[in-house]
Structure formats: structure tokens, C-alpha cells
Amino acid sequence: MIPIEYYLIISAFMFVCGVVGVLTRRNAIIVFMSIELMLNSANLTLVTFSSYLGNIYGQLFVFFVMAVAAAEAAVGLAIIIAIFRNKVTMNLDEINILKW
What pLDDT sits at residue 93? Predict the structure, then answer.
């Protein structure tokens, strides 16, 4: 049986990689993927504790998080494609479409 600490270490590493990706990268697609990585890290933690404690509530919560993440991915990619068509760039520093 694999100890719970291994899952939590992997989850923490995934979350840190996602945070570093969001803070350092300027490409909208990479930032979007980093946010998804952070969501998956939280899901791994929820499933780990759900399995460790022997209840199903964490796994149910992961189901709802995945549903929201799928909707966020669809809407987010649509927004990114629409901005790319107007600005022809994926650099977040050059996208100022919401400025006055």
C-alpha cells in the first residue's frame, strides 16, 4: 500500500508547477494549462483524503470540480480564440481589450 504522503507530495509538486506557470509565463494557453494543473492537483488531494478517510464526499466534490473545470475550459478557450482573432497575439501583456 502506498503511503498518503506520496500522493500529497505529488499533489504539492503539481500545484507548485501550476503556480510557477501562472506567475512566470505570458502565453495565454500556457497560463490556462497551468490553472488546469492546479485544479487537478486539488482533485488529487481530495481523492487522496477521501480514500484515506474512507468516505465518498471528497470524490463527489471532485466530480463537481471536474464539471466546472470542463465548462471553464470550453468558455476559456472560446475567449482565447476570440481574442487571438482580434489581436493576433497570445501574449497576455499585449492584450488590453478591456482597458478604457
Answer: 80
